[in-house]
Design a protein that fits this description.
Helices cover 57% and strands 0% of the residues. The chain has helices spanning 2-8, 19-24, 30-42, 57-69, 78-88, 93-103, 109-123, 136-142, 148-158, 168-172.
């Protein structure tokens, strides 16, 4: 019932789960075009029988799953994972999507999930994007990056945080 209230509704849903809406302010905009270009490079495309566009958050997470668990190392590798996440997920999921969900007056379970999502993503990022320790100074020195701000920006851009559930017991404990 909560899902229907937030994400389905009658007419336009209260919370839209599409990247184009969050990145460009409208559906089927330039972010979707860019996503389709990147998907074609990966050899992926939307099933024409499914009504959702490719920028739906569940579709994007499924692409990330494929990039992480796929067998073709030419396609499924860390650099492709980073790039896809940085361009198509990071700019809006833990920000404007989580904001919209948490601000909805009927959101209970999904408000908690949005808070968890935001906190989970922030753990792996340096300020101002996250809460990671500012041990970047030492890491920057070791990486021979003289300017800590450059190191932080590069580290934030190249960091992906994903939960990995490895057992049935872990699923049961969610």
């Amino acid at each position: 019932e909560e899902y229907e209230s937030l994400f389905v509704g009658i007419g336009k849903p209260d919370v839209l789960l599409y990247g184009s809406h969050h990145l460009a302010g409208a559906l089927n905009e330039k972010p979707l075009v860019a996503l389709r270009t990147d998907l074609a490079e990966l050899g992926l495309a939307r099933d024409a029988t499914i009504g959702e566009t490719e920028d739906h958050v569940s579709f994007l997470f499924e692409v990330m799953r494929y990039l992480i668990a796929g067998d073709d190392v030419a396609v499924c590798n860390l650099e492709r994972q980073r790039r896809f996440f940085r361009i198509h997920i990071q700019p809006w999921v833990a920000g404007s999507l989580c904001d919209a969900v948490q601000q909805h007056p009927r959101a209970r379970l999904y408000a908690a999930l949005a808070a968890f999502t935001r906190a989970f993503v922030q753990v792996g990022k340096y300020p101002p994007l996250g809460d990671r320790s500012i041990g970047a100074h030492r890491a920057g020195m070791l990486a021979r990056v003289p300017d800590q701000k450059l190191y932080i920006a590069d580290a934030n851009a190249g960091t992906i945080t994903f939960a990995m559930i490895e057992s049935r017991a872990a699923m049961d404990n969610l």
